[in-house]
Amino acid sequence: MRLIIDTDTAGDDTFSMLLAMKTPGVTLEAVTICNGNVDFDQQAENALATIEAAGKSGEVPVYLGARRPLLADWEPAQMHGADGMSGANLPRARQRPEEMHAVDALIERIMAAPGEIEMIAQAPLTNLALAVSREPRIAKALKHLWIMGGTDNSVGNVTPCAEFNFYIDPEAAEIVFRAGFNITLSTWTLTLGSSVFDAEQLAQIDGHETPLTEFYRKVSDTPRKVAEQRYGKVICTHPDTLTCACAIDPSIITASRNAVVRIETTGTITRGHSAIHPAKLGSRWPEYHENARIIESADNGAFFRMLERALTT
Ligand code: BDR
Ligand code: CA
Fold first, then answer.
1. E strands present in 198-273
2. 253-263, strands of its sheet edge to edge
3. How far apart are the first and last CA of the chain?
4. Least confident span in 7-16, 72-81, 180-189
5. For the segment 24-58, what is each residue's pLDDT rounded down to a tens digit?
6. Which fold has domain 2-312?
7. N or C terminus of the chain with fewer C-beta within 10 Å?
8. What is the 9 CA–ligand 1 centroid distance (Å)?
9. 247-274: per-residue pLDDT in tens?
């Protein structure tokens, strides 16, 4: 599998990268950085440090993309600490970012291998919206686009109506959903339903004491503490990591449905909301055509074993 990850590298973004780099049969061909979780340059350092931690220094190019959302003011996420890595204080990586802009790199790489590359979009969708606006043919040339974002008719994590990635750049998300990509959507609703590791699972990973389980333990420290305050128990959510796991092994998806997805860009209460409708609206409202598959549930145990294996081998 040939993969590109677009990321606002912090916490679960880094575990997604590790899963891709450490799973046999997956080639992580490039990482593109987008505005999102924390300071943009810090995110680039986090991505480079993650590549170094995986023993892949110099093998996975990192391209810098859009530093700002298209229209909205950027706001940091609250889940991952100021550095996005729970203050893990990782050594500065030897590898440095590429000169080419991420938007150019996406277009060049996708157009050079039509039908071969899959992409995980685990950040606000600014880079991808810019890329498909400049070169609309990437929508059909990309084999599959796995997006983490939105909610599936339940509450968000930034506002009751909106999840972080779509809330930060709703205009970009709406452009991407209307562009004709082959999309599978992994929502915040799925995150809470299928990506959570409980205290026992966390203890099992921590117990291995490999360099990567140590990385995981340190980098997930703030999300674990936030969850303890918010939910009264130590758990860890993995929105991006579960998205990556579903892309690598779609057999862990236990329920999904096709749908029409549009993103609210003008609502005051609902800005960034993912409006998800049944697939068959096109006969009455032609502009509402089926454009995504929504993952409704995934096998938590299988996901856990995939990540555990990636961190211990
Ligand atoms: C999304 O926001 C980020 O904080 C996570 O990395 C994930 O991509 C979840 O809402
Ligand atoms: Ca992310």
1. 253-263
2. 62-64, 27-33, 2-7, 117-122, 144-148, 183-186, 292-298, 253-263, 274-278
3. 19
4. 72-81
5. 999 999 999 999 999 999 999 999 999 999 999 99
6. Inosine-uridine Nucleoside N-ribohydrolase; Chain A (3.90.245)
7. C
8. 9
9. 999 999 999 999 999 999 999 999 999 9
Q: What 3-state DSSP class applies to 295?
A: strand
- Both structure tokens of 274: 């993912």
Contact predicate 145/184, CB 8 Å: yes
Is ligand 1 within 6 A of the CB of residue 169? no
Who's near 151: CB < 8 A, 6+ residues apart?
Answer: 161, 162, 163, 187, 188, 189, 273, 274
With tokens 């960034």, the residue in question is 272
Place of tokens 């856990």: 304
Residues 150, 258, 139: CA angle, nearest 5 degrees = 75
Measured CA to CA in angstroms, residue 178 lies from 19, 193, 244, 265, 287 at distances of 29, 27, 23, 13, 9
In short, whether 164's Cβ falls inside 6 Å of ligand 1 is yes
The conformation of residue 34, written as its DSSP 8-state character, comes to -
Ligand 1 atom nearest residue 191's Cα: 9
In degrees to the nearest 10, what's the CA dihedral of 120, 213, 231, 277?
Answer: 10
How close is the Cα of 283 to the center of ligand 2, in Å?
36
Annotated domain spans of the chain: 2-312
Backbone angles phi, psi at 121, to 5 degrees: -105, 105
Mean pLDDT of 144-173: 97
Q: What are the distances in angstroms from CA 300 to CA 55, 187, 188, 201? A: 27, 15, 15, 11
